[in-house]
Design a protein that fits this description.
The protein is an alpha+beta fold and 623 residues long. The chain is built from 23 helices and 13 strands. 44% of the residues lie in helices and 10% in strands. A five-stranded mixed beta sheet has the order 5-4-1-6-7.
Length: 623
């Protein structure tokens, strides 16, 4: 049985629409002022705002039932489109879809009219046929989701449904099922759900981040960070395990080259930070020769921006002043935003993984370590570990392909940039530092002290040199005693460095007592602590306590005597002021005469007599 005239007319209309869609250019012509990428974005935006285009909702706004309708209709429409002879088989496709032929043609018309939009197959009539609840029930559901589900305690879907069900029953309504609650929850933006239940930190992981820290070229931006290596090191003399060292790394963002590193047993501080930066800025040829490493490490130069975290040492005055002097922009990453340090964090994970190959590794966690005993397998001293790390950096990391550089190695990225920019900059490598010693001193810890006649006192030790004489008790512009800049190396405090403001030079200032042996600040503090303990042991604390007690008793006795005497004198003055003679004017006060001596009266003699009890009468018998 062939199609009816109405069906044939509808088919012709659909075929005409199809022809229009096939002949319409998809992207349009690019304006000459725009490149291909910009034109593509412009055409995509224009395609979504065409006049007469049906309004399409966001996918998260559709309920499960709406999506089910669209899937069923899309399956039927796609079957007709893929059929090479759709007209003769249109009735068969309609029967398979469970609808009338005219309904199937209407679905085709909606689909073609929208330009192939999947969601266009959800009609208003289908939405109207969906189950609707009263506004009050919808309000109860919304309140249960907002107050119960969207909370930091992260209750389950069942608990949220129970909350809505309880409130509906109390008001006499029939509560919808869990599927409805789930559908309402899924309509909420995922990022908003995660923020409410897991916090903003987890929600940020769902956001689209930009390209991160962007660097125009080598040394334009570097990142610096510290980590504790997962490996035990040995003492050079006893060859016994002494703990895990710290690693400080300065990484170039543009080329991923390691500009400098420092391995030390000292915890991250202003000193370790300054030494790492100085190592990054200065050439490495002498250092590689000292380590007996035959490799290429062409990195040196002053960076433009130093990106770091918010640790205490990165906010020190010494670092801030040194960066200002060498025109480096110190940039701290926002709090709680580790993605701003992604390059250095990724490198730290890479080098920590490489260290796990060394005997004596502690692994990254106790589960991986198992029964392995790092202190028994440790085989490298701090110096040997430093040589191993430098060899790995220059011999493996720098020359292998890097995913962030499109497969180019960091070393080639560094060389290629200077080779390409040499006609512009006029040089094939960074500018060298004229005074390396000055730079090393500039990144040492700094203190400010006034200069006295005896010199300068620091760490409880006196330093003296003739260069300090002209600045003894000098006053500044405000009339106060001026304080001068002194820098020191905590590893050897026998000498400090005085910045002379007039000559702009550093002068070494030694200990006043030159007979003392050089030592580190930690050894000096331990020695001072031991001396104080020894002095405390020699003090007779028991005798002092007994003497203090005796003195306290004497003070209490004196105070008691003083109070008693004051009380007697006050009472005497009070009696003299308030007696009868003072209150009766005109009455002559009798003169006091010495009283005659009186003889004591004789004592009465008492004789013992016998008492006759029968002679006594009661009181009632007496008249």
């Amino acid at each position: 049985m062939g199609p009816t005239p109405a069906e044939e007319s509808f088919r012709i209309e659909i075929d005409s629409l199809r022809a229009q869609v096939r002949t319409t250019p998809g992207m349009g012509e690019c304006p000459p002022a725009l490149n291909k990428h910009q034109a593509r974005i412009q055409n995509i935006l224009a395609a979504q705002t065409e006049p007469g285009r049906p309004e399409i909702r966001d996918l998260s706004e559709f309920a499960d039932r709406e999506w089910m309708y669209a899937k069923r209709r899309y399956k039927a429409v796609q079957a007709v489109i893929d059929d090479p002879a759709p007209t003769p088989n249109i009735r068969k496709h309609a029967e398979k879809a469970g609808c009338h032929v005219a309904t199937l043609y209407r679905w085709l018309h909606l689909y073609e009219e929208s330009g192939g939009e999947f969601v266009s197959l959800i009609t208003s009539k289908a939405i109207e046929r969906m189950t609707r609840f009263s506004p009050r029930v919808e309000e109860i559901i919304r309140k249960a989701i907002d107050e119960k589900y969207m909370s930091a305690e992260r209750p389950s879907l069942a608990a949220t449904h129970a909350e809505a069900e309880t409130n509906c029953l109390l008001e006499g309504f029939t509560c919808p099922g869990k599927a409805t609650i789930r559908s309402r929850i899924q309509r909420i933006e995922l990022k908003a759900r995660v923020r409410a239940r897991f916090g903003p930190k987890e929600a940020r992981k769902l956001s689209l981040h930009g390209p991160g820290l962007m660097a125009e070229g080598p040394l334009s931006m570097v990142q610096i960070d510290h980590t504790k290596l997962d490996v035990m090191v040995l003492d050079e003399e006893s060859r016994k395990a002494i703990g895990r060292p710290y690693l400080s790394v300065v990484l170039d963002v543009a080329t991923r080259m390691v500009l400098g590193l420092l391995v030390t047993l000292d915890a991250p501080s202003v000193l370790t930070l300054g030494l790492a930066l100085a190592n990054a800025i200065l050439p490495k040829d002498a250092w590689l020769a000292e380590l007996e490493i035959l490799a290429e490490w062409p990195c040196f130069g002053i960076p433009g921006t130093v990106a770091c975290d918010n640790a205490y040492e990165f906010h020190s005055e010494a670092l801030v002043r040194a960066c200002e002097k060498y025109k480096m922009n110190l940039q701290w990453r926002p709090l709680g935003r580790p993605e701003f340090g992604g390059h250095i964090e990724r490198f730290m994970r890479t080098i920590s993984s490489a260290v796990h190959e060394i005997p004596g590794t502690t692994f990254s966690n106790t589960r991986d370590k198992g029964d392995y005993k790092p202190h028994e397998h440790a085989c490298m001293t701090l110096r040997e570990l430093e040589s191993w790390l430098v060899q790995w950096v220059v011999g493996v990391y720098h020359i292998r392909p890097h995913g962030g550089l499109d497969g180019k190695s960091p070393l080639n990225a560094w060389k290629d940039w200077f080779l390409e920019m040499s006609p512009v900059t006029g040089r094939e490598e960074p500018e060298t530092i004229r005074n390396p010693l000055h730079l090393r001193i500039d990144f040492l810890p700094m203190v400010k002290r006034s200069i006295q006649q005896y010199g300068v006192k620091l760490f409880g030790v006196t330093y003296h040199h003739d260069v300090l004489r002209r600045h003894v008790r000098a006053d500044n512009e405000k009339g106060k005693t001026e304080e001068f800049i002194f820098r020191y190396d905590p590893r050897d405090i026998s000498i400090i460095y005085f910045w002379e403001p007039k000559t702009k030079l550093y002068f070494p200032i030694p200990w006043r007592d030159t007979s003392r042996k050089p030592c580190s600040i930690w050894e000096h503090r331990e020695a001072g602590s031991a001396q104080r303990e020894m002095n405390q042991a020699r003090i007779p604390h028991q005798t002092i306590a007994e003497n203090r007690k005796a003195l306290s008793e004497k003070a209490k006795a004196a105070r008691k005597t003083t109070l008693s005497e004051r009380r007697v004198q006050t009472r005497k003055r009070h009696h003299e002021a308030d007696n009868i003679h003072q209150l009766m004017p005109g009455l002559d006060r009798p003169k006091s005469q010495p009283a005659p001596a009186l003889e004591a009266p004789p004592k009465p003699r008492v004789e013992a007599t016998a008492i006759v009890w029968e002679a006594l009468r009661p009181f009632d018998d007496m008249e």
